[in-house]
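Hello forum,

I keep getting stuck at the same step: I have a sequence, I want structure tokens, and every attempt I make locally crashes halfway through. Rather than fight my setup again tonight, could one of you with a working pipeline run this one for me? It's a single chain of 40 residues.
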Amino acid sequence: MKKILLVFTVTVLMFLAHVTAASACLISIYQPEVPNSLRR
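Reply #2:
Ran it on my machine without issues. Output:
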């Protein structure tokens, strides 16, 4: 019984880690254009 609970817990945590990493990667891809006033 402990092994089943451990496997379930690890599976859920891995899924959450994957979802979090995927959403963070999508956010970092977005790069708005820099206005001319801020360019050097």
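The chain has a mean pLDDT of 86. If your local run keeps crashing, start a new thread with the error log.
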